[in-house]
Amino acid sequence: MAAATRRYRVGLVLYLVNLAAACALAAPMAVLIDDAFGRSLSGLDLASSFRFEAIVDFLRSRHDALANHFQVLGFGVLFYAVVSAVLTGGVIDSLKSPPRSPFLPRFMGGCGRYALRYLRLIVYLGIALVGLYWLNRGLDRLIVLAFDQTDHEVAAFWIMRGKQGLALTVLLVLAAVFDLARVLTAFEDRTHMIGALMTSLGFVGRHLGSILGLYTVLLTFTLTLFVTYLLVAHALLPPSSVVLLLAAQQIVMFMRHGVRVVGLASLMAHYRAATGAPPESGDLPMGGGAPGAATLTVVTLVVVAAGAARAAQPAARPVAPPAIARQPESVARTPLSPRVVSYQIEASLDPAGGSVTGRETIVYRNATRVAMKDLAFHLYPNAFSNTHSTFMRGIPWTDEQTLQRLERMARERSWGLMKVVSVRLADGADLTARATIDDTVMTVPLPRPVPPGDSARIEVAWETLLPRTFDRMGRWGDHFDVMQWFPKPAVFTDAGWKIYPFYRTSEFFADFGTFEVTLKAPREYVVEATGVPGERHEGPDGTLSVTYRAEDVHDFAWIADRNAQVARTIFSEGPYASSPVEILYVHQPYRRRMAPRIIAAVEEGLRFYGARVMPYPYPRLVIDDLPMGLGGGMEYPMLFTTSMAWFLPQFYTAPQEVTLHEFGHQYWYGIVATNEFEEPWLDEGIDSYVTRRVMETIDPPRPGRTADGLHLYVGARLLAEGLEAPLGRFTLDLDQILGIRETPFRPIEGGLLGYPVSPFWLDLPGVGDGPFLSSKDGYAKVARDNPITTPAWGFRPGSYTGIVYDKTDVALETIGRLIGKETLDQALREYVRRFRFAHPGSDDFFAVLVETAGRARPGLDLRPFIQPLFYGTGRLDFAVASLKSREAKAPRGLVPPSRAGLEPLDRRGETPLDGSSKQYESEVIVARPGEIVLPVEILVKFEDGAEVRESWDGRDTWKRFTYEREARAASAEIDPGGIYAMDLDRTNNSLTLDRNQRAIAPLVLHWLFLVQNELHLASSLL
Ligand SMILES: [Zn+2]
């Protein structure tokens, strides 16, 4: 009993030290939170519901202050690790001393006695952790060697998990060895720490089973504590109860420290029992603690596991019925497009050599008013031919992971290349010697210019060497993605050829036409392609040739895979497509379970676009799912790629999002063939906006309860980014050491087990508020770097995605809120109607937008909005800078009389304004911290329920409004309708007269709890 009291006291001391340190370290964040939310309406909202936008705005708008804070926190954590090493001396000394000896003196004495020795141990622990990091790296290399170019993705996945299990085990053993080394030092008064470590290592080695068991139980118990806490916080705590939340969190923290003390006591007892080290106390070897914890843990685990097993049961979803492979017949349709070019291609794949040999006859019609003196071709595969291609030079220097992949291509010489063998005119003139090649561009002067209306007929023979799959095209084992693979004419205009080298981010611009492509591959390969398959010929050498025909497309891609399976369905619903659409999902066998989800997403896209934009005009659509998560999504006419893990749960919506995004490209650049080199936003940006709209029809955005939302957000961030302690130029990162985030073949940022995790792509029963915030977050990071309408080569390194995809999405969302979503949909429909199968530019898009908006809302001119949002780099930010209210008083002083000759009125005391009822003066100052000038509304609410709306042209940097009323102004809000989705910080858009501390208290408590846990981790690893 006495021993139990002692353990309780030790735990209490550790807990209090942790709490004090955490309070000090968390205080700056509490100040920041109060500053942002203490008087804002979004802070008040936090009391009942959680909006990701408030958190995103807070993190982005106070980015610098937060970065400093995290740095301080990082050093604080490090310092705490040192302090707690010293404290461990007190812990061990008190635990081993007789129960009746005075507690505090003994504790303090223990701290001092072993301090220097325990501090030396920290250095050795650091070295051991670095060793673990390198062990991880070495094992990663071995896994890469074993699985490179194979299709054993499932096996690779489990081996990676095994490796991580091993790393975790090693970490537990390290924790035990260092704990025991401290115990030994105290028991035997060791002075040589390496000696103590060696003895400890030997002991742990001899008793590995029981010690590892003990530490596993401790870890499991800690994890169970968290599960219980989360369940309690979700299910039982009233959302606004600050006290209960604080109590629950502090109970968890106190128990964590209790677990730590029990762990050390158990280890000591174990060591005594095994070595007969004399107990100083009459204490019995370790009693109830650990076994008690073990029982509790096992019970909880069983309960949790049973729940998890139920949750993991895939809902019995019928797999798409294996539709009879009905060949949609290729009818000679009336042309949809101008058909400037026609291709006849014969190509054959040599899997062993990783190459494609081809021969093409191209008829290119001069549809301009000027003579065509030469021909210009894209030779895309040359992008992958060396380290200095335009494509490779476009990798930002900060993108280390991609640079490593390039390094690897260089090491193993797995380059791609396009070798042009011959170029000749159909009349026999050989132009091979005249053709010049620069990077990915080939120019061929013609012997005679082709006048307007006439055509050039040219024959090209070539060989394409497929690189190791890099982003989109190439080979991986028996899987071949043959994309951007044939010499392809650029676009001829009145101003000459529009041709550009293949950029890292932008690649598409071509003329519509017809393709007749005969593809030859070994018979055992599954081959799928753009177009509709027709004649088949079996070759004598075990090959199969299939001829594909495609009309009114401007590109042709194909895939060949020896192991793939095909899930197939026919979509023939209502008016959403111009004819039944055959959908084929070509996937690795182990990804079968993703088929219903991917196909359902495509069908959702067909419906959305069919109803609002234009029915899908082609009879077929192929989805190519690359193995090993390679390549990601990439779009080609009637064929696109995706790449996702096979096990992702339904509530993780990224697979649907990627599928819908690539499907959207069938329209944006596929049908409306914009120039992706010059105006990438017209395809990627508009696609991002519409994709999100489709996603929101599937999973409508729902803000959740505060606790749910915060746990989800923090949990997902922790899973994705891990626990990091930034220390200046160096970052301490536990999951780097454990290798939790690693994946052998697909380097990703922010992921778990090698697959991306984002709080924005989770759609859970309680909350799903993310897709728009995903864009807003991406845009806020780079808001000022570039205008949306920047050409592909003009982006600041690392800003492309944030501007082209995210900023466009948020800008279009702003326009949608301004003119109404339905009106924006009408504009998109009209834009497609006018420019389908043509090459429109930004001006065309905006002309349709301005016209449609003007028709829907007479008097509304969108042009002043379009200029700053799409062509500018200014920030959009409105704020309520100040809100004050005070009682109105009659004037004091000498009041001049109303007539000459009279004495002034001398009023000395404060009196109410008119005596009958109290009057208040209120002052609201609004401001425009951003550079963008646009008109905006202001809503002022008074305490008697009255409301006043004001308009402000936003031209000055601030404006003052004053009121004299019988009630005080309770709140002021700028842009109350939330029209300006681009507003970078909505937390400063409102002020309340009173502070809402209760509303923001849970936020502060969650932060404190996080810091407490981080400190605890730094002190004991458990
Ligand atoms: Zn895209």
Ligands in the structure? Answer: zinc ion
Beta fraction of the residues?
Answer: 15-25%
What oligomeric state is this? single chain
Structural class: alpha+beta
Low-confidence stretches: 281-331
Distance between the termini: 26 Å
Task: Give the CA-based shape.
Answer: flat
H/I helix tally: 23
The total count of strands amounts to 37
The helical percent reads 40-55%
Mean pLDDT: 88
Biggest beta-sheet profile: 7 strands, mixed
**Largest beta sheet: what is the strand line-up?**
5-8-3-2-14-17-16
Topology:
Layout: H1 2-37, H2 41-45, E1 49-50, H3 52-61, H4 63-96, H5 103-147, H6 153-188, H7 193-206, H8 208-235, H9 242-275, H10 289-312, E2 341-350, E3 355-365, E4 372-378, H11 390-393, H12 400-412, E5 417-425, E6 436-438, E7 441-450, E8 455-465, E9 474-476, E10 479-482, E11 488-489, E12 491-493, E13 496-498, E14 513-522, E15 526-529, E16 532-538, E17 543-553, E18 558-561, E19 565-571, E20 581-587, H13 595-612, E21 620-625, E22 634-636, E23 639-642, H14 654-664, H15 681-698, E24 704-705, H16 706-721, E25 724-727, E26 730-733, H17 734-738, E27 751-752, E28 755-756, H18 771-782, H19 800-819, H20 821-835, H21 842-856, H22 863-871, E29 879-887, E30 893-895, E31 905-907, E32 920-927, E33 936-942, E34 947-952, E35 958-965, E36 969-974, E37 990-992, H23 997-1020
Helix pairs in contact: 1-4, 1-9, 1-23, 3-18, 4-5, 4-6, 4-9, 4-23, 5-6, 6-7, 6-8, 6-9, 7-8, 8-9, 8-10, 9-23, 13-14, 14-15, 15-19, 18-19, 19-20, 20-21
